[in-house]
Each structure stands twice: as C-alpha cells, then as structure tokens.
Amino acid sequence: MFAVTVRQESDRTVVSCAGEIDLMSTAELRTVIGDQIVEGRVHLVVDLAEVTFVDSSGLGVLVAARRKTRTFRGSLCLVVDHPAVLRVLHVTALDRVFPVHRTLADALAADPAVDTAGPVDPDGGAAVTRPAG
C-alpha cells in the first residue's frame, strides 16, 4: 500500500510517502509532485522515511522531479532512513545526484540554495556530502 501527503514547512514543501514506490504507485507520486511544481512550490523535500521499497520507475519519477525543480531554480532533496532504499540509491549512484538526509529535521535545516549530494553509507553511516559542481 502506498500513501502520499503534502504539507508546507516554511519555504519548503514536504511530500511524505509511505509504503512501496513501484509501478503501481508512481503515477500518483508523479502527479502530486508535478502539482506542487506547477503551483510554484519548487523547493521540495521528498520524505521517504516510511518507504520500504523503491523500484526503477520510482527512481525515474524522482529524477524527473529533480530536473523540473532545477528548471525553475528550485531544489529537491530526499529523506531516507530505510536500509533497502539507501542501498538502491547507493547502487544506482543516485546518492551522488540527490542531497540525502537521514531525518526530516536535517533536510529542513539544510539550505535549499546549496544543492549538495554525496554517497551515503547504505549500512547506516552518515551521509557524506560534497558541493555540487
């Protein structure tokens, strides 16, 4: 089962997901994120802390959303804590594309104007960030 909610946190829009992001749920996620961007909310935090699985279609939605936010000088970062999801990001090298935070508080504290990403330790270590270049 998949669920998605949206809320505003200061100048950031938090898109919180729970469950599995797969072929059956990506249309809903794509629509929700797309609606935020169309409405001018381009600094997004996608909270995947309650997500237990992401397949390639889900990764595609996230990559496309990042591209769209950057087109409008926005940002998109991820909150990921589940080891399986961290591992997928690491294996696909998407941890070098997205800023990945372990908690929502960390993501909201980060400056959205500084787009950093770096490899995460899929076994539970802290994320390593590097300046975007």
From TrEMBL:
Entry protein name: Anti-sigma factor antagonist
A Pfam family assignment: STAS
Ranges in a coiled coil: none
Protein species of origin: Nocardioides fonticola
Residue ranges of every copy of the STAS domain listed in the record: 2-111
Matches recorded under PANTHER family: ANTI-SIGMA FACTOR ANTAGONIST TM_1081-RELATED (PTHR33495:SF2), ANTI-SIGMA FACTOR ANTAGONIST TM_1081-RELATED-RELATED (PTHR33495)
Protein family: Belongs to the anti-sigma-factor antagonist family.
